[in-house]
Amino acid sequence: MVLYRELHRPQFHFSPRENWTNDPNGLVYQNGVWHLFFQHNPEATVWGNMTWGHAVSDDLMHWRQLEHALYPDEHGTMFSGSAVVDHENTAGFGKGVLLAFYTAAGEYAKPKRPYTQCLAYSVDNGRRWTKYAGNPIIPWIEAANRDPKVVWRSGTRQWIMALYLAGDRYCLLNSSDARTWTRFQELRLEGVSECPDFFPLTDESGTERWVFWGAKGVYLVGSFDGRQFSPETAALICERGRNGYAAQTWSDAPDGRCIQISWMAGGQYPEMPFNQQMSIPVELTLAGSGNEVTLVRWPVRELDALRQRTIRLERQSITAGSPLVAATDAKLLDVSFTVSRQDANALYVMVRGQPLVFDWSSKELRFTNSPSHKVMPDRLHVMLPDDPGLSVRLLIDTTSVEVFINQGLISASFCFLPNGYVDPLVLQSYDGEQTVDNFDLHEMASIWT
Ligand code: FRU
């Protein structure tokens, strides 16, 4: 089998050349290059031997995998973390040096040690990494504390780190030299654990807000003065569906963009040389202001460059006897349409034979054939808004479908394994009538050319 052309290889989503991946790590942009480090087992297609794999891209779509960046050492295996550009040489390794913050999972060290937070740096744009001689930079706090995410706050000229502690508890720490850290606040995200993110975004009134994020896509929006994060919303949920997990945003993304990628946790890739994949990178923005504020998640515009042939359809009524069958045999699709439900019970979008159900009666979106990640059995059902009409965008790759509703106000990620099917995309009703409009289907190019 030709590498990157295997049967179940995602064609416009990142997956490692071979072996296992889970969380995206160390996302940082520097000198025109997007770095994507990732939790990786260099030896097998199952979780273990955690190492930081490394890939780079100049357009967030086409990835080139490089040498692994961080290997296990006497402190433990290399669990998740983040990376930043040290523009002001705060750490003393030089101006513009890349700093990576990661967890050494001491449980897997020989002999065993507690989980600690460590630092590595790269003076050659991320090609080679040196672990800081004074590691760990943060001694064990409790349990399997982990997943440091670091952001620069220019106002107080400090680094801020979000760290997962235990249960559903996280904390914030600060530092002016990236090496010595002081813990100043504890936070909870009910029912959520692991992989925090903490980043600023401007809301629609022009006010800077801070988003505190946990691995399940649950977040709080609040204010942050450098000393205290004050949540101003209840816990909200951004990424739904069964398979989005452990998302992280890029440090230093140009033009003030906030770009995020998730692990699509839990798909199946039988007999493939690799296991697991990343989501499509999305741009995050804040809709609304004050307490009425919501994260919006939308595929980055760089994806549009992969569009090949386009099929546009006029307004079409869909009834039991007359489905909309897209005239394509392509497997890689970027599809948009609007639908008004009228008296239909549900819209069945058959994605390569797998039913994605917009159930108008229960107001749920379901994709029943999606294999779950162990921590998210509860996210099979996604609530739909009350509106009589919806706008829908679907990104369909060989083993995944990402759904964006009403311009990204609701989004959900699902993995699937196609079985027998004839047409790659069919929209149908079993009962009643509904109208589909503005149907636009783009066949997509592979990124592995
Ligand atoms: C989340 C996670 C992290 C940890 C990493 C280990 O998926 O469990 O908390 O750092 O994966 O691979």
**Largest sheet properties:** 8 strands, mixed
β-strand number: 37
| Radius of gyration from CA coordinates | 22 Å
Beta fraction of the residues?
A: over 45%
Can you give the helix content as a percent range?
A: under 10%
Mean pLDDT across all amino acids: 95
CATH architect. name of the largest domain: 5 Propeller
The name of the CATH topology of the largest domain is Tachylectin-2, Chain A
Q: Which word captures the global form?
A: globular
Note the gap between the termini: 15 Å
- What is the number of helical segments per DSSP (H or I, 4+ residues)? 0
Domains (count): 2
Helix-and-strand structural type: mainly beta
Describe the structure.
This protein is mainly beta and 449 residues long. It folds into two domains: 19-299, Tachylectin-2, Chain A (5 Propeller); 305-444, Jelly Rolls (Sandwich), CATH 2.60.120.560. It has strands spanning 19-30, 33-41, 51-57, 64-65, 77-86, 97-105, 116-122, 130-131, 146-153, 158-166, 169-175, 182-188, 197-202, 208-213, 218-224, 229-231, 236-237, 239-240, 244-249, 259-264, 274-275, 277-278, 282-289, 292-299, 307-313, 316-318, 324-325, 333-340, 346-351, 354-359, 364-367, 382-383, 389-397, 400-405, 410-415, 425-428, 434-444. Strands 18, 25, 26, 28, 33, 34, 35 and 37 form an eight-stranded mixed sheet that branches. A hairpin with a 5-residue loop joins strand 13 (197-202) and strand 14. The model has no long low-confidence stretch (mean pLDDT 95). Bound molecules: beta-D-fructofuranose. Residues 22-23, 39, 50, 79-80, 103, 146-147, 194-195, 215, 246 line the site of beta-D-fructofuranose.
